[in-house]
Amino acid sequence: MSDASLNAIVTGAARGIGKAIALRLARQGTNVVVSDIMGEEAEKTAREIEKTGVRALAVRTDVSRAGDAEELIKKTVAALGSVDILVNNAGITRDNLSIRMAESDWDLVLDINLKGTFLCSQFAAKEMMKKRFGRIVNLASVSGILGTAGQANYAASKAGVIALTKSMARELGGRNITVNAVAPGFILTEMTEKLPDSVKEAYVAQIALKRAGTPEEVADAVHFLVSPAAQYITGTIINVSGGLLI
Predict the structure, then answer these.
(1) How far apart are CA 102 and CA 98, in angstroms?
(2) Choice among 118, 123, 154, 186 that is catalytic
(3) pTM over 0.85
(4) Catalytic annotation on 154?
């Protein structure tokens, strides 16, 4: 299938990496549903996407709620006719040392990052199976591979996303649905730009390419995985970290 005939959902797409992914897909002719808990910002992003000449729809979604995830898929099908691509990007952090971490912060991060990915994938896959075609890309993280001090909840959620990716790839491959993940490293976003310079410098010092990545570079990897060039790739994790994970 060509990009021009496809409809994509990108969760957490109001800003940051999600927005970059949504715009990258739109510029290739893919219609995009901008899903985010921040409804007004999602609307702004959708209007920006429409300027590329494709159709765009904003849907306020709490991906940790099954009802919201199901409604997201229903609204997409009603407006665009199908769900061909799902990019599970929605995610949060609530950092603290494990011994000090509140149970509520553990639950919230796992609910959004891991459970949300599962719920959206579950409902989207049911639609994809009808067409015997689909592309699911999950946003993992190098933290889910290496573990990160002060991010036990985040690292655990992203490790879970990696395992979920591999399991669903085995389950859905027979219906021509690929399931892959992208694991970004240190990427410059609204969230990371707020970090102290000393922290950012410490991250960059560990990166082989000696610089932070950009949301657009993550978006390029996602676009590859949903393109015809990756039709025989499933269950894999693409590390987009500049050599942080070697």
Answers:
(1) 9
(2) 154
(3) yes
(4) yes
